[in-house]
Specification:
The protein is α+β, with helices and mostly antiparallel strands and about 160 residues long. The chain contains three helices and four strands; from the N terminus they run αααββββ. The protein binds zinc ion (2 copies).
Length: about 160
């Protein structure tokens, strides 16, 4: 089968391409630039991950080579705050920080803290659509209670 520019990708991912890229290792079929198959999507996600690690390191004032997301590394940080307490905090935030996703992600950050370290665990977030946030857990001990839709506590976590 001979592929020509603006034909659909030979891998049947449905993407129309203007150019073929080099075949992935272990494959003979070349996919188009911008291909949407699983392997190409994963490959792009890894690249995006690397760029995020680089951004995080630069934005937090890191020196030297970029530590990857598995390596423990701490940054000094100066911040100024605006305080919000109790019902000034949107419920969407509370449900976010009581979610399983948050628990897991923050748990991963906490695992990277050395025993006895005075650093705080934080999530570096670069969501789709732009922007970057550092969410630092500075509570000495977790005291947050999940609030249900009617404002009832749904348990002590
Ligand atoms: Zn494809
Ligand atoms: Zn592909």
């Amino acid at each position: 089968m001979s592929w020509r520019p603006y034909d659909p990708c030979p891998c049947d991912c449905g993407v129309i391409g203007w150019k073929l890229q080099r075949a992935l290792s272990g494959e003979t079929l070349a996919h188009v630039v911008g291909c949407n198959c699983i392997r190409h999507r994963n490959k792009r996600n890894r690249k995006t991950g690397k760029r995020g690690e680089y951004n995080r390191h630069k934005r937090l004032g890191g020196q030297g080579p970029t530590p990857n997301d598995e390596q423990p590394n701490t940054y000094p940080l100066w911040v100024t705050t605006q305080d919000k307490k109790g019902n000034q905090v949107p419920v969407s935030f509370t449900s976010f920080v009581t979610s399983a996703w948050y628990e897991h992600a923050m748990g991963q950050a906490k695992k990277k803290l050395a025993i006895g370290s005075e650093a705080h665990a934080a999530l570096y977030l670069e969501p789709q659509g732009g922007g970057a946030w550092l969410l630092v857990d500075i509570a000495p001990k977790k005291k947050l209670k999940a609030i249900g839709p009617l404002g009832h506590e749904v348990g002590n976590r």
